[in-house]
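Technical annex, item 7. During the second reporting period the consortium partners agreed on a shared format for inverse folding records so that results from different sites could be compared directly. Each record opens with the tokenized structure and is followed by the designed sequence. A conforming record, contributed by the partner at site C, is shown below for reference.
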């Protein structure tokens, strides 16, 4: 383990012996690394067999966190590891695509669509990513896919 990863784990109160486990505050390192856009930490944790199905206190998974962090390398690493691209938040039903579309994360939306994110999923309030598209570019990206039926 290199010193930068060791320092990150220590500074965020994660176990050096079991780095994939949540800290005393209930935060999973995979989720925090995604939020912070730390692909080096994500890669390290995936090599430590970090569970891909962990969720945070708001019902979001690590992919959602990586979309929040807007780091394409984090998103790619999680997708390659097999994280559920269509995981729906337990509270709202929103997916990472719906969240990203609603929060103007254009490059993230493009990346998720290229990876096969399901555009037909809806929140508990019956809104799709297309319904919540927050920029013209996102609206066009989603409209083209919905129209083509992909």
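Designed sequence (site C submission):
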């Amino acid at each position: 383990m290199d010193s930068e990863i060791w320092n990150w784990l220590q500074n965020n109160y994660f176990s050096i012996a079991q780095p994939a486990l949540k800290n005393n505050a209930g935060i999973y390192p995979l989720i925090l690394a995604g939020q912070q856009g730390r692909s080096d930490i994500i890669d390290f944790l995936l090599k430590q067999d970090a569970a891909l199905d962990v969720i945070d206190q708001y019902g979001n998974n690590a992919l959602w966190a990586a979309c929040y962090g807007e780091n394409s390398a984090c998103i790619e690493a999680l997708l390659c590891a097999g994280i559920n691209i269509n995981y729906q938040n337990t509270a709202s039903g929103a997916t990472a695509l719906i969240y990203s579309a609603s929060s103007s994360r254009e490059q993230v939306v493009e990346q998720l669509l290229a990876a096969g994110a399901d555009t037909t999923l809806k929140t508990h309030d019956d809104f799709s990513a297309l319904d919540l598209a927050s920029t013209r570019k996102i609206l066009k990206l989603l409209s083209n896919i919905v129209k083509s039926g992909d």
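The two ends are 42 Å apart (CA to CA). The chain has two domains: 1-84, 85-150. All partners now use this format for quarterly exchanges.
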